[in-house]
Write a structure and sequence with these properties.
250 residues; alpha+beta; Alpha-Beta Plaits; 2 domains; ten-stranded mixed β-sheet; 5 helices; 30% strand
């Protein structure tokens, strides 16, 4: 047996999430079907990170065991020949048998992409979140400072999440205009790098930052959320369409 690692991207709007589901197109299911078609082996694809329906990936990582004699670097082309246009495998290689793409990851990075403008271009409808009115990036950056470092992020986790603990370490959090003006608006990215993430954590954080950016909440609200002083008021979970898994580091 050999262990193959692949790096790939996908359009989350085409799938019912990344994790395999019966009778639904998922990223994991499509990849497993592709390997079965060209190798004749039914194998389990192990993903570095799970993503919900509508969430995209720029650089997802996975690994799987195989007895196929295909050279490791050739698996990328073999998979691409079998999958739909919503997935593209960028590279593949043989890795040690003990390598686990999920367990061995040291950090993950997500980008949340916003189209800030009234005239929402149709090509961005399922790729970004549309926020009308002005977003104050400086206010968002100021609020984001309290999230950097090792903290309890239970306030930014979906209710009912089956987590053993809520401590996570955010290494970087940057907010910036992502390129030139597009139409009447602009693209803004929220980039977050951490050791790992809680369920919907990035979407909760993005929701609070947006509330602060449009002026509905003060900058101090972020610290109130972190400390639990905001009471029973729930943070807004923004739509999955703007979220991208952008990097996994080992």
């Amino acid at each position: 047996m050999r262990n193959i690692s692949i790096v790939f991207s996908y359009d989350g709007s085409r799938f019912f999430g990344s994790q395999a589901q019966t009778d639904k197109d998922t990223v994991q299911g499509v990849l497993e079907d592709a390997v079965l078609k060209f190798s004749g082996e039914k194998t389990r694809i192990n993903l570095a990170g799970r993503t919900d329906r509508g969430v995209h990936a720029l650089s997802q990582v996975a690994n799987f065991k195989t007895s196929s004699l295909i050279p490791g670097e050739k698996f990328a082309a073999a998979i691409n020949a079998q999958v739909c246009s919503g997935i593209y495998v960028k590279s593949s290689k043989c890795v040690p048998l003990e390598f686990d793409s999920r367990r061995d990851a040291r950090s993950r990075e997500y980008i949340y992409l916003i189209y800030n403008g009234d005239d929402f271009p149709v090509m961005y409808w399922d790729k970004t979140l549309n926020i009308k009115g002005s977003l104050d990036i400086k206010r968002m950056e100021e609020a984001a400072k309290v999230l950097i470092g090792r903290h309890d992020f239970k306030a930014f986790c979906s209710t009912g999440s089956s987590q053993n603990h809520y401590i996570r370490h955010i290494h970087e959090l940057k907010i910036c205009a992502a390129g030139p003006q597009v139409g009447s608006g602009r693209l803004i990215s929220i980039r977050i790098k951490a050791d790992s993430f809680l369920y919907k954590m990035v979407r909760f954080i993005a929701g609070v930052l947006i509330e602060i950016g449009v002026g509905r909440k003060p900058v101090s609200f972020m610290k109130e959320r972190m400390s639990g002083r905001s009471g029973k008021e729930r943070a807004r979970v923004v739509a999955p369409c703007g979220l991208y898994l952008s990097e996994v580091k080992y």
